[in-house]
Structure formats: structure tokens, C-alpha cells
Write a structure and sequence with these properties.
The structure is a single chain. The protein has a seven-stranded mixed sheet with strand order 7-5-15-19-12-11-10, with no helix packed on it. The chain is an alpha+beta fold.
Length: about 475
């Protein structure tokens, strides 16, 4: 079964435990030094490492043609290349390309045979069977900081006082070119495409410890079998796609004082560091399901004599090289024909591989005011987020002598956990409330302003119990 929807389940602060091979240990670097974080991955109710152990066992079993529970040189020659295995992250299956593993590299004990543990060890050494971490660095931090200071600096002295910061929400109108009562990054800096970074750089674990000068504000730490301590320990669980897809990821925190939930993301803070984890369903399920169904349909179309197998003539007659490529890796009995049972067995194996494809897209946001204020990670600042500007800046220690001090802004690191590549590295606003409230909330910021409200003015005044010209979900649902 392909699993697709992600849920970040819990966060525990300051926990010392033994990390598993499927965990991802990170060193996050903030203004006040490094912080250790561990992301514990689960697939359904199973540990990530166990799912991959089963995958390597199933891979060995698939190519064990004589059933002796180990692979000889001829059988091992059918194993997918490391490059093909990495393609599962995007395509959902191992295509037929790349150099097959050298038998000598697989046969660790030199007994002329390869068992499941040796297969697992080979692929794990190549970085497979663990979460992928793709990193990118946001490049617009300084320009966004300057634009926000200009927007908030009412008296033009080049600084933002705490009183000016308190009026941040009212400053939206001047810069809100699309009149949605929000200020997007592209409205602050013309032509800017936010976040301007993708997780295209593969972060690999250092040999022994984190590098002294990491390329990003985070580095992957090597796996350790010993007890380790981490300031942040977050459990990520991928749940079955058959669950209600319409619901957003479920998040909860064991230490509310240290972790804040907002708009479908989990924010954890330490002095000088803001670490945001968000869950994204990912694109893999849709991509892989489409590929599997297409192959099944094509098999039926190309099996012209309906004998449940493609012979050499039918394969030659079919368009493209797909069946020829599959024949090389899926023809288990080596009879130069592809039986329907062989195709189904190969697809079942690919589904097993796809189930464990977890990508962590890490964006290094630097010390950005925009990143500090954008609580739901949607790339725009709502009136509600700007009303919370003073509170956020004070908690971050960025208010000094009554002024906003940009040099004190925390380093922001955003990680999007997804099954395969994410649908978006920006958040989606998860809203709730009565149907009329959701319909009137045109800019999707979770509130209804007086301008958005389409009912009688008297009704708005009655509902707006605190008189701030904004209807919150609580006010909309109050009896």
C-alpha cells in the first residue's frame, strides 16, 4: 500500500534516547550556537527503519529465483542500480538504468552469495533506506528586511520603534497592491518569487561530526547507536492515503511552552533560533499510482492473444522500449517473456519501495523579519500576523531599547516533510469555522474583516465583541 498523508504528531524537548537508523539527526545553527534536533520517522504504526528492512528483504526475495534465501552472482545482476533506487522518490518505481551493484561490493563476507542483510548494508551505505534531506538557502532575506523596515518606519528615521511595530497591521493598505488585505513578499520587493529556494542540494551525513562551517544553517549528523541528547525531538508519522485526504496534517506538542502550533506547522524556539516543521502530502502517491495503472492498462492492450503474458513478438510490436527494459528486471523465470503475474509482483515490490520515500526539504531562511512574522508559512503577512509582530519580536529578543534590532532576529529554518517531493514548500492556510465565515474569508487568512463581511453592518457589529473590526473564528462560532 502506498502511504501518502503526513502528520507531525509530537514534540518533546530535552530528551536523551538512542537514535535509530531511520531517524534523522540534525545540527541546527542559530545566533547563539548549535542546537541538536532529531526527527523520528514512522510509516503508519511502524518505525521507518523496519519498513526499509522489509523492503530490502522483499528485494532479495524477488530476485532469489532458486528460493535458497540468498543471491548468487547471476541473480544479483538483476538488482537495481543506486541511481535507479533514488528515482523512486520522484517516479515511484526503479527504472532500468545505471550501473548494477558490483557483486564484490555486495558480498561483504566473500562467500559467493549475498543475503538480505548484505543487500541492505550495500544500499544503506549509498544513502538509501533513510530520509532524504534536500536543502536550499533563501536569498532575499536582506531585501525583505529592508522593505519591511521601510514599510513600518512611519517617521522615516531608519529604525522601527515598538510603537511603530504595534501599528504594523494598519501599514498593509499602502503596500497591498492586489487589495487582499495581506502583504505578500512580492508586494514588498517587486518581482520577488518567494521563498526563492528549493531543496535541490542533497545534505549527506558527515563522516563523524557536523562540519565546523556548514553550507547551511543545518547539517545532517552521522547515525549513532549510543544514547544522544537533543533539544528538539519531533515524531513524524506518514499515515495511509485512505485516511480523509481533505483534512490537514495533525500536529500536537508535548511541551506547549517551547513549541507553538500555527496554520499546519509546528514551530519550536530556542534563543536565536526558530525551527519550523511542516507536513505536506507530497506528490509521490499521485505520480506512482498513475504509473502503475498505466503499466497495467498497457499490458492488457499489448497482450493481443490474451494469454496473460507478453512474448517476444508482442513486446517487439509494442511502441517504445518500456517492456524491453522491464523484461530485463522483472522476468523472474528468465524465459524472455513477461507474465502478468511477474508484472504484478514487480509492481508490489515498487509499492513497497515507494512507501518509505520521505523527503525533508530544508530551507535556510537566515535572520529574516518576514520569516519571524509569517506564522503559517504561506508567503504573505496577514493583519493577524502583523498584530502579533510585537509579541513575536519581544519573544525573539529582537526588541532592544524600545527599537527593533534586526541583528537580534533568530535564524529561521523551515523543514517540509513529505512523501516524495512536496506539493509546496510554503504552507497552506488550514481554516475552520462556520460555512458562511469560510466563504466570506476571501484572502484565506482565517479572519473576516469588515470589508469582507457581506451581511448587514449591524450583524457584524454584534458579532465583533471586542470591537477590533475583525471577526475571529471564536467570534463567528460564539452563541
Amino acid at each position: 500500500m502506498i502511504v501518502g498523508r503526513l502528520a507531525v504528531l509530537c514534540c518533546v524537548i530535552g530528551l536523551a534516547t538512542t537514535a535509530l537508523a531511520g531517524d534523522c539527526e540534525l545540527q541546527l545553527t542559530g545566533l547563539q550556537g548549535p542546537v541538536r534536533a532529531r526527527l523520528e520517522i514512522q510509516i503508519g504504526d511502524r518505525k521507518f527503519v523496519d519498513v526499509w528492512q522489509e523492503s530490502f528483504a522483499e528485494l532479495t526475495k524477488f530476485y532469489d529465483f532458486d528460493g535458497d534465501q540468498k543471491l548468487n552472482a547471476a541473480e544479483a545482476a538483476r538488482l537495481p542500480s543506486v541511481a535507479a533506487f533514488r528515482e523512486v522518490l520522484a517516479a515511484g518505481f526503479t527504472p532500468s538504468f545505471g550501473d548494477v551493484p558490483e557483486f564484490a561490493a555486495l558480498d561483504a563476507n566473500s562467500d559467493k552469495f549475498v543475503d538480505a542483510s548484505e543487500v541492505a548494508a550495500f544500499y544503506r551505505a549509498a544513502g538509501l533506506g533513510q530520509p532524504f534531506v534536500g536543502a536550499g538557502k533563501m536569498t532575499h532575506t536582506k531585501s525583505l528586511n529592508a522593505a519591511l523596515v521601510k514599510m513600518l518606519d512611519a517617521d522615516g528615521n531608519g529604525q522601527v520603534s515598538i510603537d511603530e511595530l504595534k501599528k504594523a497591521a494598519s501599514a498593509i493598505a499602502k503596500f497591498d497592491r492586489n487589495d487582499d488585505e495581506m502583504i505578500g513578499a512580492g508586494e514588498l520587493v517587486a518581482g520577488l518569487k518567494y521563498p526563492g529556494a528549493a531543496g535541490s542540494y542533497l545534505l549527506k551525513a558527515a563522516a563523524k561530526e557536523a562540519p565546523s562551517k556548514p553550507k547551511f544553517a543545518a547539517a545532517v549528523l552521522p547515525a549513532s547507536k549510543e544514547e544522544t541528547s537533543a533539544e528538539f525531538v519531533v515524531a513524524i508519522r506518514i499515515v495511509a492515503a485512505e485516511a480523509d485526504k481533505a483534512k490537514p496534517p495533525v500536529l500536537s506538542a508535548a511541551s506547549p511552552a517551547e513549541a507553538k502550533l500555527s496554520g499546519g506547522s509546528l514551530t519550536l524556539t530556542k534563543p536565536g533560533l526558530q525551527f519550523v516543521l511542516r507536513a505536506d502530502p507530497g506528490r509521490l502517491q499521485e505520480t506512482s499510482d498513475g504509473a502503475y495503472k498505466r503499466l497495467e492498462r498497457r499490458f492488457g492492450d499489448d497482450d493481443t492473444n490474451d494469454d496473460a503474458q507478453l512474448d517476444a513478438a508482442e513486446i517487439e510490436k509494442s511502441q517504445g522500449t518500456e517492456w524491453k527494459n522491464l523484461l530485463a528486471i522483472a522476468d523472474r523465470n528468465a524465459d524472455s517473456q513477461l507474465a502478468e503475474t511477474e508484472l504484478k509482483a514487480w509492481l508490489a515490490l515498487q509499492k513497497q519501495f515507494a512507501a518509505g520515500q520521505v523527503l525533508l526539504t530544508l530551507l535556510d531562511g537566515g535572520s529574516g523579519l518576514f520569516e519571524l512574522l509569517d506564522g503559517n508559512r504561506d508567503g504573505a503577512l496577514s493583519a493577524a500576523e502583523l498584530r502579533a509582530a510585537v509579541e513575536r519580536a519581544e519573544k525573539a529578543g529582537a526588541i532592544q531599547d524600545g527599537q527593533l534590532d534586526l541583528s537580534k532576529l533568530p535564524t529561521t529554518i523551515v523543514i517540509t516533510a513529505s512523501a516524495g517531493y512536496p506539493q509546496s514548500v510554503l504552507g497552506v492556510s488550514h481554516r475552520s469555522g462556520p460555512a458562511w465565515f469560510l466563504a466570506m474569508d476571501r484572502n484565506l487568512d482565517g479572519e473576516v474583516s469588515r470589508r469582507e463581511f457581506t451581511g448587514p453592518a449591524a450583524a457584524f457589529t454584534r458579532l465583533d465583541t471586542n470591537g477590533d473590526d475583525i471577526l475571529s473564528e471564536a467570534e463567528a462560532t460564539a452563541k
